[in-house]
Fold:
Amino acid sequence: MKKLVTLLMMVLGSCERPDSGDLIHIELLQKDGHDDLKFSIEGLTDDLTFDSYYFGIASEHTEGLEVKNCLANFIGDWVTEIENMKDGQTRFFPIDISDEYTGCVRIIKHGNDLEINYGYSGYPGYQVDIENPKQFFSGVTDFQSDVPKSITVQQSQFLRSLKSQINRLLE
Structure:
């Protein structure tokens, strides 16, 4: 619960409201944990649909935590990691968590810019620690791109978009 309160303070302190200009879109549909997590990055991916199943399992570990709150905390971990990245570092941010693989966003920091690509790793989804994904962020060694290009965006713009998506999830 403390993590959620800290996340809310971080996000609400930004006073950012969601708008249609977000670079990233994350939406949790009201379904049963399968084909219910919509995700896209403007200019990079089409609308993708994943399972929220593992977020549901993680939310069961914390009494009263809903799947959407668990997902918001998870994206908050992305924000913290991106804010702490050093120039030249590469990090991987999981979103499509499946038994046999993990779909992820690869980010390489170049000054104030982020080079972003989407792909997957053979890292089994059941090994991703939803409540503390830091090991995954720097532990991927077999990333394969799903898209033939990458995009470069300002770090501040990408972080604003992530925080906007957190706000949407928590509404």
